[in-house]
Write a structure and sequence with these properties.
By secondary structure, the protein is α+β, with helices and mostly antiparallel strands. It contains nine helices and ten strands.
Amino acid sequence: MESFTHKSPAKINTFLNVLSKRNDGYHNIYTHFELIDIFDEINFVPSVKNSFFCDDPDLINNNIIEKTCNWFNEVFNKKQVFNINLKKNIPYGSGLGSGSSNSASTLIFLCMFHGETTKNLDKTEISKKLGADVPIFLEQKSGFASGVGEVFEREHSFKGEYLIISPNLNISTKDLYQSKFLQTNHKPDKKTNSFFEPLKKESHEFNAFYNYLIHIGGEKFKNKLKLTGTGSSVFIENPLKDDVELLKRNTKKKFRIFIAKSLEYN
């Protein structure tokens, strides 16, 4: 039986502004997604019944890939099923786009497999049924986005290197959007993430993680650390070698470290 393997890249948000709340309950945002060279791998084998395996047991009974397959079958009137194997490298619930990237990679594969084009996919519907970040991953490029995240404004990559610090925390995006501490930006600000301060106040675990980083890195870290997405990962752009070594010495199993570069693509 033929097997198909797709790589599913992570992302960081170099900034993320919440601009307003919409009548449909969602929020208008303005952000920049930078695709980075950390990947999950998804293997599809056509089968007679659905099966899903992942090296992360928490995702066995709750995964976006099967949900995406079911959505695609319904929209395009297909009955295709697969044996699916997900090799997880991107921490789940960490603000690195793990689930959204998996969903987009699945849609790209399904379109290819069935001879459809991704241009026929309804990105507004996808953003509401599968996740607000999924449409941006369908572009397979870094760039600026708006709407609820589904409107790809223009391509742009900073072509940088990133030190990503990822604690073992699964942050609820839905809860943060409902936080009483969330404030909207009156105008776009490419230096800030609207969720950073609310997250510190809503999550004692994240606040302790952040304060630990400031404790070991000193005041200089306050200006360097940025939040990706709604967290829980933070990152430093174009880190110094000393920054990397300092964090390696002080992980104490409190967090994982990734050194990533902007994804190169055609």
